[in-house]
Amino acid sequence: MKPPAPPGCWQPAYIGVGSNLRDPLQQVQNAFESLSALPEVRVVRRSRLYRSPPMGPPDQPDYVNAVAAVLTRSPARMLLEALKSIERAQGREAEPVRWGPRIIDLDLLVYGLHHVDEAGLTVPHRGIAERDFVLRPLADVSPLLEVPGLGRVSTLLARLPAGALQVIDGAH
């Protein structure tokens, strides 16, 4: 496990963004704007937006998924708390069904070269290597990124079967 970065040191981090309720395109755009407004966070790249079938129960709308590449001086736990605050501000409530529909979902996917395994926070995010709706947008912003302990994004993506993702807009 890599020790925490010294206070004030900028760290690269990657945030997954997804929505399938209440105008998902707008929800994702709102999340990007909120990320850009966070103190100690600088959004440096955004992926294209993708439409993907739900991972959970099939009786829900398709998702809009994306990834933001950021630089941050916030420790991983504080960044996660900021992400949860954005979710609450956009109206997210606790979902009664695992992987069910949601207004907005922000996941801390990768935080520098760090491995974090604490209550409520696992980085790299669990399941990252098996999810094309995470890896494809992540490849948009950083295809050569080494996901700590798992490998390069482009290699992980190449191992997955062709998914049902559809690009719904261009890169930003």
Overview of this protein structure:
The chain has 172 residues and is an alpha+beta fold. It has one domain (11-167): Alpha-Beta Plaits. The protein is built from four helices and ten strands. It has helices at 24-37, 76-89, 132-141, 153-158; strands at 11-19, 41-46, 50-52, 63-72, 105-111, 116-118, 121-123, 146-147, 151-152, 166-167. Strands 1, 2, 3, 4, 5 and 10 form a six-stranded antiparallel beta sheet that branches. Strands 6-7 form a two-stranded antiparallel sheet. The protein starts with 10 loop residues before the first strand and ends in a 5-residue tail after the last strand.
Properties at a glance:
alpha+beta, 172 residues, 10 strands, globular, 26% helix, two-stranded antiparallel sheet, 6-stranded antiparallel β-sheet, Alpha-Beta Plaits
